[in-house]
Amino acid sequence: MRSIWAVAKNTIKQALRMKVAVVFIVLLLVLLPVLGMTTTGDETLKGRLQTFVSYGLSLTSLLLCILTIIVSVYTVTSDIKHRQIYTVVTKPIRRYQFLLGKLFGIMMLDVILLALFSAFIYAYAVYMPKKYKADHKENPQVSNEITQVNNEFFTARAALVIPEIDVTREVNERYQELKGMDRLPDLPYEQIISELTEQAKVRKRTSNIGQKLIWEFDNVKPLTKSMFIRFKYDVAVTPPDMQVFGMWYAGDPNYVKYGQQPETPYYENILRHSVQTFHEIEFPANVVPKSGHLAIAFMNIYPNNTSIIFPDDGLAVLYKADTFTANFVRAVFLILFRLFFLACLGILASTFVSFPVAILMCLVLFSTAAISGFVIESFDSLSSDLNIFYSYSIKWMIRFLPQFDKFSPTEFIVSARLLSWSILARCAVSMVFIKSFILLALSFIIFRYREIAKIIV
Amino acid sequence: MEYAVETFSLTKIFSDWWGRAKVYAVDDLNLQIKKNEVFGLLGPNGSGKSTTIKMLLGLLHPTKGKAVVLGGDGTDPKINSRIGFLPEESYLYKYLNARETLDFYGRLFGLPSELRKMRVEALLDMVGLKAVANRSVGTYSKGMARRIGLAQALINDPELLILDEPTTGLDPIGTRQIKDLILKLAQRGKTILLCSHLLADVEDVCDRIAILYGGKIQTQGRVRELLQQTNKIQITTEAISDATVQKIERLIKDEQAECEIASPLDKLESFFIRTVAAAQQQAQPTSGAVSTTKIGGFLVEESPVEKILDKLVSAPLTEKAVQKEPMTEKVVQDESLASGPDEHLLTELTGSPETSVSKPVAKEEKVEEESAESQQVPQKEQIRKDILDRLTDTSSPPQKDDRQKENS
Ligand SMILES: Nc1ncnc2c1ncn2[C@@H]1O[C@H](COP(=O)(O)OP(=O)(O)OP(=O)(O)O)[C@@H](O)[C@H]1O
Ligand SMILES: [Mg+2]
């Protein structure tokens, strides 16, 4: 244990004194405050906060990721290349302990830096509304904006689960209908069905003028006074001013469906919003009936000249579930898990290849992980044409990479979405306890049998 | 008996990436190094010395055969904690300073902090780098780095010390110091495996040597036996009158023997050390090479007893003699033990005006060692009284003796 600690301490000194880490630290120390002072967003306070926090966190995460890769690869390969390792592994320390020491050192550095920079981002974000208030004393809008920010940014909101709509019956009917008319396209059965399913689903999310869309939620237990509808409009024909009207309703389903007068109050309002961006509507939580059965309805109304389509993730009902601080801390942990994975990756790479190759390898894998959603998607769409070799090797490898974009901390923070403990735990299990440990185990095995003094030219 | 190092047809074949172009670096090597032996591994460049050492320590895997170190595997931490290793070059962390470097290695051995600090300071003092201990070792000269490398190998007070060309880059004083150190450690029952190209050094300290060529042992044996010329005798005296010389010559002629008479040359090594000592006494400024002047406190007149090398390795019996005259420890020490004819040789070496007789062997010191062999017992007594033991075992009675003697 003592020897692991010795190696860890030495690794930190190496990272700092060889100026590898210093470059990144200085860069962040300069960039973060500059970012804080220059971000404007869409000129609203919320926009500013979102821009600052999203850039700040992404930048911190990106730079620390690269730093971790470089330091972990550098510290191991340089010891081997400059042969200081000769006098280290011949001391009473096992090879795996040497690597563990390196990992500890890197992670300690990461934890310190991450804590430092995220604390700065947090503190600055909390300070921004205060400054804004002081700067715009005369403006009566300010208190509104502050309330908005408190409701929509400094919070952690969970979304109600939207029940899956079953369209199989419709699809089958449509299929039979087409078949009866003998207008089936010349395609395999599965493909026709999947196309029809897609069409049916889009139809369920489409509101023609005067048509009402209803979403129903079960077991809703409002925890706070307000709830929010977060939505985005897509349109068939884009209006000249990019704005459309919509009538929104929230409350007892019986009223909106059958016109029965509800016991609980309900929310109803006609609003105008721009298309193709996310918006939020706040409504009081007391509209939820005692049964916990809540309906949200939308109607496309007359002045509009187009059908309105809600994209796949275009509607969510949100409620406050935790504090901003707790959410922020968990988001920082997400970054830390990333760093841990990358440190293990760097160590593994440097146990068998030299510095430039290891760096290249890690950077490629890192960028793949950063856009893994895209990679997997494009792969799946291609894979039908590819042979078995591809689907069993590369696909598997891409699946092994952690999905950094899926567990993106900035996404959660910017949209004030609850990053629950269970998501965090899932990420920890997959990224740290499974994937990183496999990498570590591999590096232990390779390093255990490696001939340290063998020079490969 | 159990050997400190034993290899069984140890073989290392280097091949390139494709498995071709084979180099037989070490070929069917059977080495046996006894405990408490100073063993020299000699051989021209590329003869496989370093490769052998690396295989002993698990830095390279043997192609064939195996090596047993201290009765176990050279990669086992338990065994490693009893070994000190100095590689062919001092590969140090450039960004650490000397003190941090030694502290780091001390930590790797899991030494408790108090003991670690004591040893670090003692070793820094011994290798003469205390004054520059806060400079990063990347800025050190080759010899200075070598000294740190050596200190690093000693931090655990190893039972087996493996030194790959320890004296490269060292100044003559440093070289002399290392030789003295090796002898002292040997007296304390340590085993030393030494690789070197400087034959004079090897000759001075090794009990046994093996000469490698092309990865094979060409010859091995006890240095004395390999080098002794049994049919000659050497007489060395102080300057005496010509009449006496003629008398002696006549006597030898009577024996029908040939003889050669000349003033002996001083050894360059002793000359160098005397010169530096004189320079130091005049307190001449030394730029950069502070370490050199500090080396071997035994040159520092005002505090001869303080010198750490002695504390590390010498027995209290020697201290009186050391104060009298700065000479190699070996010689000095034997003075107190010697009786009979060898006494003359020793006193001659330390400069007292008496004649002495010796056989012309590899080196005078070797003769003394032989004569001292009959006196193994007192030597063993001294062994316990040195400072490293004091460092490790603070409650042992010999330590008290030691202190009393120092104080007096
Ligand atoms: N990693 C390696 N790959 C290939 N050949 C090697 C390697 N290391 C050593 N050799 C070869 O093995 C032989 C023995 O090398 P070694 O370093 O043991 O020599 P040495 O006796 O220590 O020489 P020197 O006196 O120069 O230190 C040399 O021919 C050398 O070229
Ligand atoms: Mg060598």
How would you characterize the overall build of this protein?
Chain A is of the alpha+beta class and 457 residues long. Chain A has two domains: 2-149 and 323-449, no CATH class; 206-322, Sandwich (Jelly Rolls), CATH 2.60.120. In chain A, 59% of the residues lie in helices and 14% in strands. Chain A is built from 16 helices and eleven strands. A four-stranded antiparallel beta sheet of chain A has the order 1-11-4-8. In chain B, the strands form three sheets. Chain B has a six-stranded mixed beta sheet with strand order 6-7-8-4-9-10, sandwiched between helices. In chain B, strands 1, 2, 3 and 5 form a four-stranded antiparallel beta sheet that branches. Chain B has a two-stranded antiparallel ribbon with strand order 11-12. Chain B has 19 helices and twelve strands. Chain B has helices at 49-56, 77-80, 98-108, 113-126, 142-154, 172-187, 199-205, 223-227, 242-254, 268-281, 290-294, 308-313, 316-324, 329-337, 342-350, 364-373, 376-383, 387-392, 397-407, and strands at residues 3-14, 23-29, 32-34, 38-42, 64-69, 83-86, 160-164, 191-195, 208-213, 216-222, 234-236, 356-358. Helix content of chain B is 44%, strand content 16%. In chain B, strand 1 and strand 2 form a beta hairpin. Chain B has two domains: 3-228 and 264-281, P-loop containing nucleotide triphosphate hydrolases (Rossmann fold, 3-Layer(aba) Sandwich); 320-376. The model of chain B is unreliable at 287-408 (pLDDT under 50). Chain A binds chain B through residues 2-3, 5-7, 9-10, 13-14, 17-18, 82-94, 451-454, 456-457, and chain B through 14, 16-17, 54, 57-61, 74, 77-78, 80-81, 83, 85, 87, 89, 91-93, 95-96, 100, 104-105, 107-110, 136, 149, 152. The structure holds adenosine-5'-triphosphate and magnesium ion (MG).
